[in-house]
Structure formats: structure tokens, C-alpha cells
Amino acid sequence: MNLKIYSITNKINSKKYIGVTKDLDTRKRKHFWELKNNRHSNEKLQRDYNVFGGSAFEVEILEELKYATKKEGFKKEVFYIWKYNSCDDGYNMSYGADGSNLSQITDDTREKHRQEMLGNTYWLGRKHTEETKKKIGDVHRGKTVKASTRKKLSEKAKEKTGEKNPFYGKQHTDRTKQKLREARSKKCRCIETGVVYNSVKECAEKMGIPKARTHINQVCLGKARQTHGYTFEFVE
After folding, report:
1. How far apart (Å, rounded) are the C-alpha atoms in residues 216 and 213?
2. At the top level of CATH, which class does the domain 183-234 belong to?
3. pLDDT for 118-143, tens place per residue?
């Protein structure tokens, strides 16, 4: 069969997703339909699509394989994933669809992927550069959050109430509570829209996600990359 090794590249941060397919046009339509409708199974790719928008991504053919077997296609896919480091520093969730080259993956890398699958953010401890923040802002400048979008975000937040909330049954220490109060009293900016709010509470309420105050705070502190598809930072 004839196969194509392709990449989906974020033109702003240069991160890539590597894939292999027989029909690139069909595969491309499927990728972007799922991304546009917030239904893509690849959480890393979906998160950045929500931040940067569809215009920030481009698809290109890296190599065409004629009369290749499926196994040969998978091996070539793995080659490009390693070449571009697109699993650790890109959008691939694993090293190839057939599990090829798993013996080459270090224990540390395996643990990292395991933690990601458990839901830990791969952005922990990282922050956007000023250049990247500017690019994100340029992409979204002038956009407003539609009422329908605010409703969807609110409904999504309701899904994590009660026992569904990972913090259910736990309590903050007095020290943590004080830190949260101090953080929430700071001004914060939504990078995508450029709007500055007097507090995290005001930000959450005006954006239609009133129960996301803690999540917004985590993003501002650099402990999470984004929440509800948006990125935030404190303003001194």
C-alpha cells in the first residue's frame, strides 16, 4: 500500500504531531473536525488548538512510502517521532501506533507518560515566554467569549462537582488558605483576550466560569498550563 508520514505543526511554538495514513485528505479532515468540536482524543493537541486556534496549525507530508507494509509505515512513523522529539516535546502521546521502539524508552520517560495518562499536567513548572504570550494574544485579540461558549464552560465545570471533584473530602491547611486568598486578590490577565481583571474571582465570573477560580489561580502560579481553554497570568 502507499502510505504518507505527515506532521501537524504548531507554527507558533513549533511543536509537532507525527502520524501515518493512506489517505491524508480524509485524515486531515477528521483531525480538524474533532479539534474544532473539542472532541479530539489527543489532549495535548486539543489543548493547544483551543489556545492558538486552527490557523496556527499546518499539515505537511514528511515522506511518502510506496508499496509499504503497515509495519514499515509504523517504523517510519516512530523514526520521525524520535527525530522531532514529538512525544516528549510535541503532541504525540506514544512512540508509534504499534508500540515500536518501546524498548528504547527510558524508565523516566515511561513514568512521564504514565503520569500524563493519569491526568497530571505536562506543563507543570513551565511558563510561556513573553514572545509566546504575545503570539497567543495576537491570535485571539479582539475576540469575546460567546454566551453559548460560557454556557458550555459552565456545564463542563458542573461535571466536576461533589464526589466527581478530585478535591472532594479534602481540606486546605490554614497556610494554603492564606496563600489562596492573597493570590485571588491579585489582578490577573487572560492572555488570549488581553483583558485584565481586578481579581481571579472577577475574572472567573465575567468569563462565565465562576467555579474555576482555583484552576485560574493554578495557571497564574505556573502549576497548570491552562483551564477551560484559556491561559492566565498575574499582573503586578
Report:
1. 5
2. mainly alpha
3. 344 444 445 556 666 666 666 555 55
